[in-house]
Amino acid sequence: MKIDEYALFNDVNRLIDYISRNQKPSSIHELNEYYGLVQLIHDMYGIILGDDFFFDVNKKYKILENYDLKNIYKLEDTLREISPDILKMSKIFNKGYDKNMNYYVDHGSNIGQKVYSEKEFKDLLLSFYSKYGDRILSIVRKYINDDKIHTSNQLSASEAAGYTTNNRIAKNSYIISGIDKYNTTNAIVIAHELGHAIDSELLFYSQGKKLSQMSDPFVEVPSCIFEIAFMDYLINNKIDVRNALSFLNYRIVSDVYGFKKYKKRINNDEYFLSLDGYLLDKENEYGEKLNEEEDNLRDDLIYYLGYMVALNVLIKYRGNEKDLFKKYNNFICMRKENTFKQSIKELGLNYDDFINCKLVKPYVKEKSDDLKMKLYKKNKN
């Protein structure tokens, strides 16, 4: 799958033209989106686009720094409010699983998995998304049929499996996956990224709202919902079940179970980690620069919430996907205005049950046991 080069560079030029004519702090969203497209073009072609025609250098970086700090503090305020509930949820989920970690690890999800033709690969994704109604399917068709998805093996390990870029001016997103084979893992990665594209289509492009990814604790929820649901779809339809189970369990151990190591950091009222790895406090602003290998609390928090919410939603609405879309749409469109609790309730979830893992723990145990049995049978044969 390759992105339409002409359409991509046309969208980039439209964005450059808009920012060049709007040299003001309110263009910060568009400027950040430009840098996302710069990264995409670099990953696809090795070309580095400049930004010298934008703001005066000192002014530009001061605006970016102030914007980042402002949104880090917003997320920090949310974290202070919800940390008791998040810690409680983490403790409840992790209780009893310490001795069973082998149930959750990724048992070779890139080994011996199903490989598809390009047509089979696209049809698989379209078949899955058709369960969610015409609006969702039309968005997914746009990205698949209009060549807005790129598969490549050129991404570095630090850039993860894939990412999505936005462009509010052109009302388009672009998706890149770091896997160049039409296999199950790549389909899961693209299902996740399509969730981000759907989020942008419903929130940014249709409503014109602006919401910083750095201040949004639910930024990964729209994508994780579709990723988890897609893995469940593969399992239920007996499509590469072992690898789908393996990837599902990998997500649980790396992004949900693994969150327990951040308890002390969450409890610390003084410091919070920013995207660029600085330790911050409100009095001193930028504090000590952390080592590159230090984990980033913000990233781990958004993926933890993403997968926990996704698991709850999957269990509640399995077999009733069109009702899920109604809740999903309301959640996406109102999460900027809603509190944390209101957003959870917007999805039709009982907040106390969510925190107490009432739906999630039995499901995780079931899928972990399924994987254990498949591994047992494979080893026995």
Chart the SSEs and their pairings.
Layout: H1 5-21, H2 28-45, H3 57-94, H4 118-129, H5 134-145, E1 149-151, E2 162-167, E3 172-177, H6 184-205, H7 221-236, H8 241-256, H9 263-267, E4 272-273, E5 278-281, E6 285-289, H10 297-317, H11 321-334, H12 340-346, H13 351-355, H14 360-380
Parallel strand pairs: 1-3
Antiparallel strand pairs: 2-3, 4-5, 5-6
Helix pairs in contact: 1-2, 4-5, 5-6, 6-7, 7-8, 7-10, 8-10, 8-14
What are the key terms here?
three-stranded mixed sheet; three-stranded antiparallel sheet; mainly alpha; globular; 381 residues; Neurolysin, domain 3; single chain; 14 helices
Q: In brief, what are we looking at here?
A:
It is built from 14 helices and 6 strands. It is mainly α.
The 3D shape can be described as: globular
Q: Please give the order of strands in the largest beta sheet.
A: 1-3-2
Q: Provide the residue-averaged pLDDT.
A: 79
- Would you report the number of β strands? 6
Helix-strand string: HHHHHEEEHHHHEEEHHHHH
CATH class label? Mainly Alpha
Strand proportion: 5-15%
Describe the main β-sheet briefly. 3 strands, mixed
The CATH topology annotation reads as Neurolysin, domain 3
Give the second-level CATH assignment, the architecture: Orthogonal Bundle
Quaternary structure of the protein: single chain
Distance between the termini: 37 Å
Name the structural class: mainly alpha
Write down the domain tally: 1
Number of helices: 14
Rg from alpha-carbon coordinates: 21 Å
